[in-house]
Amino acid sequence: MIIDLEMMKKRLEQIKSQASHWISSSDGSYEACLHDKGYYKLQKDIKLVERLDEIEVIMDNLMDEHDAILEKLGEDLR
Predict the structure, then answer these.
(1) pLDDT in tens, 1-16
(2) Which of 54, 2, 12, 56 is nearest to 34 (CA)?
(3) Can you give the pLDDT at residue 3?
(4) pLDDT: is 21 or 42 the higher one?
(5) Which one, 10, 49, 63, 77, has the greatest CB density within 10 A?
(6) H/E element holding 2?
(7) How far is residue 76's CA from residue 10's CA, in Å, rounded to a whole number?
(8) pTM summary value
């Protein structure tokens, strides 16, 4: 599954824009509108995708270190 983070962020802004007519309400209508349109779930999903991207970078770095260690061990054994 390919996740387009930029597309998700654009959708988040669209939802926020669509709910902007409720922004001056003090009865929670703005937040309810955001919730109904999936703003908060999408916001959470974006944070998860960003965290997954960070984890992927960490894993890549660890694999590079692993490969370097194996290479060094191979040289030492020869």
Answers:
(1) 346 999 999 999 999 9
(2) 12
(3) 64
(4) 42
(5) 49
(6) none
(7) 52
(8) 0.75
Instruction: State the Cα–Cα distance between residues 40 and 55, nearest whole angstrom.
Output: 23
Our CA angle for 48, 50, 53, nearest 5°, is 110
Distance, CA of 74 to CA of 67 (rounded, Å): 10
| Residue 24, SS3 per DSSP | coil
Instruction: Please give the torsion angle defined by the CA atoms of residues 44, 47, 53 and 59, in that order, rounded to the nearest 10 degrees.
Output: -90
Query: Residues 26-72: pLDDT tens digits?
Result: 898 999 999 999 999 999 999 999 999 999 999 999 999 999 999 99
Q: What span, in angstroms and rounded, lies between the C-alpha atoms of 60 and 52?
A: 12
| 11 neighbors 37 (Cβ within 8 angstroms) | no
What the block records as the tokens of 76 is 């030492």
